[in-house]
Design goal:
The protein is mainly β. Helix content is 15%, strand content 44%. The protein contains 3 helices and 15 strands. Strands 3-2-1-6-5-4 form a 6-stranded mixed sheet. Strands 9-8-7-12-11-10 form a 6-stranded mixed sheet. A 3-stranded antiparallel sheet has the order 13-14-15, with no helix packed on it. The radius of gyration is 19 Å and the shape is elongated.
Amino acid sequence: MTEQKTVKPTADTLAAAARTATRKGPPPVHLWNPPFCGDLDMRIARDGTWWYLGTPMGRKELVRLFSSILRRDGDDYFLVTPVEKVGITVDDAPFVAVDFERSGKGQDQVLTFETHVGDFAAAGPDHPIRVVRDPKTGEPSPYVLIRANLEALIDRKSFYRLVEVGCHERHKGEDWFGVWSGGVFFAVIPSAELP
């Protein structure tokens, strides 16, 4: 009987598997259930920078490739290929929304966000916007859902632009300031808390 060796995955082996898996479009990571191979020393910082072995990953193509095989299960993040699944650390959200396009106005407007890795999502019922406020400072952290449990932190300049296209609406029995997109009103802050 031969003994099988377990090989710890590296960024290079994951990249090779990801390239194979993504040749025919976005990979169906939600369908893959490979064995867990351990944690990889890879981290996504709050600003969207990917780190491997304590060094920032400078190759945008490689970051884009890894982002295409990212999956969130519960509170944990994994890079998943058909043959292996490794855990990585995500400081906040795995993506950063660095810009958005606005089409239409008022309740008919659609806000389409772009992430730092080139993904696009039109905010609406399938891609909601949410805002979390720091309990101590009240500072808002806005997010938009990009795909299957993976959110993007909306960067500061884009958030300021959102405020410019926002309005006050009655929402769940209270007056709120927020934005419309895709036929949905996304509440940002109670109107009473604004000057």
